[in-house]
Specification:
By secondary structure, this protein is an alpha/beta fold. The protein contains 16 helices and 25 strands. The strands form 6 sheets. Strands 10-23-24-25-21-22-11 form a 7-stranded mixed sheet, with helices on one face. Helix 1 (4-19) crosses helix 3.
Length: 568
């Protein structure tokens, strides 16, 4: 069995190899996990870890790797388990559907619903249908259809079939007429305010007494465009005395004469979601229909319509909606921010839209893990960005190349320094990602924060380069003298060579809304600095880790340099 000292050395070396600097706070948990009895003397444990970190940080990277090679690390095996449990599910027979209305750009709430539908079907070897519930011509566009499909593919979600409710209008009309015959629906010609008042007072109107023939004749006029918007609606004959307001003769069809993005002017009498959703679920063979619990009161109506038509009913499952603290989720809140120019567009990195998350450098895998953690629970929650960003950071750490960047730069001149090239690994733990050379003369840019912390006479080390001592601090210039090449346990500074430095700006998104839900004008800040010359070769959309700063995605290249968006 390894001794405590060996365990400390092992994890300190591993931490230094991963992050180029051993940080005791990141080592202690690993040590305790492997050597639990060490918790009995935390003060002594921290002392040992601090001493070992000091020793390891004085080694070169090659020395760290040589010592680390003496240790082995076992990988944890993750047990396979079914992703999402569904009631009454049959292996190979599960059919789910993701049914967005194409009235806006998809956001993280859609991602949750889509992943639940997709993963539930996959868990049982079934399939998921992508169905566009597109029966509101006033809000829907092909642009949104395309954005939803693009967003799903980016998330890694595929679908077995793609359907459109508007393609089955004739069938929906037939089912409506069947309800007339069965005395389960009627055409109401009451003014809108009168309908509203009657529902509030639990009072039926005279229209409900119409017979099937009269209802069929009026419905034909509605369909043929011979009646105006608001002049008539079709209502389900529910129960006007019900305590469930959804059952007080709700609307099934209404007149909308706006041309449809897909059907043009072919139809002007459109079904409500309450009518179209249950019928489409039944016709398409959906076995498990999942939707957010905001529809819970409408479940009774869902089943009542299917029962009246003698159609098969799926298993209906509710889950909680996903809200993000400090971010607008609903299209109702996002659209005005875009139209009023308060955000850069639907891909603004402060927005929880899939386009915004992608532009911010959030990985699809991080979104998947984040939303699936909530599962099919109906418990309301409003997490902030922290958990998603933490997952994203962990995943990016494995794949993002490293680059040098300094913010709020201050010039550093080192006297007597030899000109050379620093050979730097693109990833500290992944040799296969290669190395790069960074030319260094005697003039550099260092971060303003690091410059402030330096004192005259202080010894410091430029990372992967050499050691120097501060000679003078004068305004926006620090003069230093070269000391030696060997690694030392001194303050390590990030740098960018003044020769070839690339100007760049980093946009840093914050919470778009304050505690009261009001727009925060200062929610997108910007920081300027310099990055190393190799950043010019990065493709737009690439996410890198700026060492000792964070992960950032290259948004664009312009005449002023490079523009990145801070991810996490």
């Amino acid at each position: 069995m390894a001794t405590l000292e060996e365990v400390i050395r092992k994890w300190t070396l591993k931490n230094a190899a991963d992050y180029k600097l051993a940080i005791p706070a990141r080592v202690i948990g690993k040590v305790i996990a492997e050597f639990p009895q060490a918790k009995e003397d935390m003060k002594g444990l921290m002392k040992l870890i601090n001493e070992e970190a000091k020793r390891v940080n004085a080694l070169s990277y090659q020395q760290v790797e040589a010592e680390l090679a003496q240790f082995s690390f076992e990988e944890r095996k993750v047990e396979e388990r079914r992703g999402i449990e569904l009631p009454s599910a049959v292996e190979g027979g599960v059919v789910t559907r993701f049914p967005p209305e194409p009235s806006g750009y998809p956001h993280i709430g859609h991602a949750k619903a889509a992943f639940l539908d997709y993963e539930a079907a996959r868990s049982y070897g079934g399939k998921m249908i992508l169905r566009f519930d597109d029966t509101n011509p006033e809000k829907e566009k092909q642009e949104f259809v395309d954005a939803i499909k693009e967003g799903l593919l980016w998330l890694g979600i595929d679908w077995a079939d793609e359907t459109y409710t508007s393609d089955r209008m004739e069938e929906l009309y037939t089912y409506c007429e069947e309800l007339f015959v069965k005395y389960s629906a009627y055409v109401c010609t009451c003014p809108t305010e009168e309908v509203k008042r009657g529902r509030e007072q639990k009072m039926a109107c005279d229209c409900s007494a119409r017979d099937a023939q009269e209802n069929m004749a009026l419905f034909r006029r509605m369909r043929e465009g011979k009646m105006q918007e608001g002049e008539a609606i079709v209502r389900f004959r529910g129960n006007m005395k019900s305590e469930n307001t959804a059952m007080r003769d709700p609307t099934l069809f209404r007149i909308i004469k706006t041309p449809h993005y897909r059907q043009g002017s072919k139809y002007c009498c459109w079904p409500s979601y309450d009518f179209g959703a249950p019928i489409m679920d039944s016709l398409e063979g959906i076995t498990h229909a999942m939707r957010s619990k905001e529809y819970e009161l409408r479940n009774e109506l869902y089943f009542a319509i299917l029962k009246a038509l003698g159609l098969r009913a799926p298993v209906l499952i509710e889950f909680s909606r996903l809200e993000i603290k400090g971010a607008p989720i609903s299209k109702r809140l996002i659209a005005p921010l875009v139209s009023e120019g308060k955000v850069e567009g639907y891909d603004d990195p402060r927005l929880p839209t899939l386009a915004g998350l992608k532009r911010r450098g959030i990985l699809p895998e991080a979104i998947k893990e984040f939303v699936l953690e909530f599962g099919l629970s109906k418990v309301e929650s409003e997490p902030g960005w922290a958990k998603l960003l933490s997952l994203n950071r962990k995943m990016l750490d494995e794949r993002a190349e490293r680059r040098y960047f300094v913010a709020d730069p201050v010039r550093l001149a080192v006297e007597g320094a030899p000109e050379r090239e620093a050979l730097v690994r693109n990833h500290p733990a992944r040799e296969e990602m290669g190395e790069r050379k960074i030319a260094a003369g005697c003039e550099f840019w260092i971060a303003g924060q690091d410059a402030q912390a330096l004192s005259v006479g202080e010894l410091f080390r430029l990372k992967e380069l050499y050691n120097a001592t501060v000679v003078e601090k004068r305004g926006d210039l620090i003069r230093a003298k070269y000391e030696s090449d060997e690694g030392i346990a001194a303050k390590k500074l990030q740098w960018v060579s003044a020769d070839g430095a690339v100007a760049c700006r980093i946009k840093k998104p914050g919470d778009l809304l304050d505690e009261s839900g009001n727009y925060r004008p200062d929610s997108l800040s910007e920081e300027s600095g310099f990055c190393e010359p190799s950043c010019r070769q990065l493709a737009e959309g690439t996410v890198v880790q700026f060492e000792r700063y964070g992960y950032a995605r290259l948004d664009k290249k312009d005449e002023k340099g490079l523009v990145f968006i801070f991810s996490c």
